[in-house]
């Protein structure tokens, strides 16, 4: 009995220590398991929600950046309610801002859900630019070790590869900051276009009102001096 209890405890500990990697069959042999990133823009309708699913392995660094570029219709609130949920359904991060960044470590392998809700505007849509992805530190080294089996790499070569990997990660983070600055520039561009249209239409309306008021004043003056008799009215 004591031996069976000990084996049961050890087996339970082994189960909890395993990674939550799903078992792929032959049809999934070409499944992409490396770092990936995406950036694109979407339009969220009034009081609507747009959701996306992104696959991530365990022990990865998940990041999401978004920015509300402009609003349409009668939307006057550029805040966006964004949530990221794990494959188990637990909430990993949430924000209710016009511009936001989220970063967290993936603890479970599966599809992470990102939802963008335009709950603050009931009569207007918004356009959102997003950039998200997963970074796996040391992914290339682990893949090479699995392929080469028990081959021992040279210490100098290992140091060079580690430095190159670190440099690649730093370049990637610099690219993220550049992409975020590009999103802000796009927002400023749309704001300038919106202000230009507003000034143009408002100037045209004021010019029309001035011309119309002048025409009405001229009609009133002409009616004051017009009479059927030889004597003027005033």
UniProtKB/TrEMBL annotation:
- Recite the lineage of the species: Eukaryota, Metazoa, Chordata, Craniata, Vertebrata
Q: Which UniProt keywords apply?
A: Endoplasmic reticulum, Membrane, Signal, Transmembrane, Transmembrane helix
> Which positions carry the signal peptide feature in this UniProt record?
1-17
Gene field: LOC115586547
Taking every annotated instance into account, which residue ranges of this chain make up the domain GOLD? 12-134
SMART domains on file? EMP24_GP25L
Q: Does the keyword Membrane apply?
A: yes
Q: What name does UniProt use for this protein? A: Transmembrane emp24 domain-containing protein 6-like
Q: Which residues cross the membrane?
A: 201-221
Q: What is the top-level taxon of the source organism?
A: Eukaryota
Any one Pfam family here would be EMP24_GP25L
- PANTHER family per UniProt: TRANSMEMBRANE EMP24 DOMAIN-CONTAINING PROTEIN
Family affiliation: Belongs to the EMP24/GP25L family.
Topology versus the membrane: Single-pass type I membrane protein
